[in-house]
């Protein structure tokens, strides 16, 4: 058994209130996992996974990012982050959730999991607040080259003075998530790339907080995040002894079918980060927590958490 709590804490942007969900196990809390969710989704979608971890005495917490879920002031704000320093603001918000949770549960092993866009933010989090956690799970991550980022920047700079930062560009969508479905043609839906699990895809497509297009501000936020996390000088700021688990579907287009994930793993290894593990799941696509076969993923994450609780007793 577990209980779910909803709280609101101030965003570091000084305007929004972060919608925070906390899944509490019935017994003693032996570890905490904070989740940084992906693009065009929300923290509530992790309910099943969170309850599984609750059954193992692990508390799960996470917030809706700016521009997502119930953190927005209105539906018109979906897909828009922040006017200034939006990438850093999202990461600072993640740390606010960390501080909020640690104040409630001091001296409990603390881990962070980032999925997809949330993994990009989690990678930046580790470069800024890496000493505040005991380990990290980087899920469904990817790599973008400097040339791709430069093209995105040029499109943004062209559109911004003409359309404004709230503009939802079909071109930017087509160049990013719009191309992911092509690998799975003929397509049943526009989101086949998410999972082989058709039921999970259908649930996603009926979710009102998953049915919006990003603004160009949103895309530019991701571009700026990649520019930051790609820099070797920033990767070098991640604690060298931090346990990190990379997991992704082998058919995930965000990770270039595993090749992008391997590039990130290699960059971390080159920076001297030594306690890492990488696992690619054959046949699975982007949302491995919602896939057919998700039970294996759940168990692998739990086993990794147990293995990395350090000297603390865990029965």
So what's the overall shape?
globular
CATH architecture: 3-Layer(aba) Sandwich
Instruction: From the alpha carbons, calculate the radius of gyration and give it in angstroms.
Output: 18 Å
Question: Which parts are unreliable, with pLDDT below 50 for 5 consecutive residues or more?
Answer: 311-315
Structural class: alpha/beta
Q: Give the number of DSSP strands.
A: 8
Structural domains: how many:
1
Strand content: 15-25%
- Our measurement of the CA-to-CA distance between the termini, rounded to an integer number of angstroms, reads 18 Å
Short structural summary:
The chain has 315 residues and is of the alpha/beta class. The protein has helices at 47-54, 86-104, 117-129, 146-163, 170-175, 198-206, 216-229, 232-235, 259-270, 294-307; strands at residues 2-10, 17-25, 31-36, 58-63, 110-115, 135-139, 244-249, 276-281. 37% of the residues lie in helices and 17% in strands.
What does this protein look like?
There is one protein chain. By secondary structure, this protein is an alpha/beta fold. The two termini are 18 Å apart. β3, α1 and β4 form a beta-alpha-beta unit. It has a single domain, classed as Rossmann fold, CATH 3.40.50. The longest helix is centred in the N-terminal third of the chain and has 19 residues. The protein has an eight-stranded mixed beta sheet with strand order 1-2-4-3-5-6-7-8, sandwiched between helices.
Topology of this structure?
Elements: E1 2-10, E2 17-25, E3 31-36, H1 47-54, E4 58-63, H2 86-104, E5 110-115, H3 117-129, E6 135-139, H4 146-163, H5 170-175, H6 198-206, H7 216-229, H8 232-235, E7 244-249, H9 259-270, E8 276-281, H10 294-307
Parallel strand pairs: 3-4, 3-5, 5-6, 6-7, 7-8
Antiparallel strand pairs: 1-2, 2-4
């Amino acid at each position: 058994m577990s209980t779910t709590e909803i709280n609101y804490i101030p965003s570091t942007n000084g305007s929004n209130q972060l919608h925070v969900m906390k899944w509490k196990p019935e017994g003693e809390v032996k570890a905490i996992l904070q989740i940084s969710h992906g693009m065009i989704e929300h923290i509530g979608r992790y309910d099943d996974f969170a309850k599984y971890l609750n059954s193992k005495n692990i508390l799960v917490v996470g917030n809706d990012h700016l521009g997502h879920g119930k953190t927005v002031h209105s539906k018109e704000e979906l897909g828009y982050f922040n006017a200034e320093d939006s990438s850093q603001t999202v990461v600072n918000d993640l740390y606010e959730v960390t501080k909020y949770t640690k104040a409630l549960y001091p001296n409990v092993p603390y881990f962070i999991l980032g999925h997809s866009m949330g993994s990009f933010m989690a990678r930046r989090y580790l470069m800024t607040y890496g000493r505040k956690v005991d380990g990290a799970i980087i899920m469904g991550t990817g790599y973008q080259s400097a040339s791709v980022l430069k093209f995105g920047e040029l499109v943004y700079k062209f559109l911004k003075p003409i359309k404004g930062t709230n503009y939802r560009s079909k071109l930017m969508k087509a160049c990013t998530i719009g191309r992911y479905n092509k690998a799975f043609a003929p397509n049943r839906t526009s989101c086949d790339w998410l999972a082989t699990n058709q039921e999970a895809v259908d649930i996603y497509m009926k979710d009102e907080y998953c049915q919006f297009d990003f603004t160009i501000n949103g895309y530019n936020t991701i571009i700026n995040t990649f520019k930051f996390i790609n820099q070797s000088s920033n990767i070098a700021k991640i604690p060298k002894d931090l346990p990190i688990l990379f997991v992704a579907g082998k058919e995930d287009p965000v990770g270039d079918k595993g090749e992008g994930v391997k590039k990130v793993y290699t960059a971390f290894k080159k920076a001297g980060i030594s306690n890492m593990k990488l696992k690619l799941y054959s046949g699975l696509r982007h949302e491995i927590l919602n896939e057919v076969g998700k039970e294996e993923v759940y168990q692998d994450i739990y086993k990794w958490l147990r293995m990395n609780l350090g000297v603390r007793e865990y029965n």
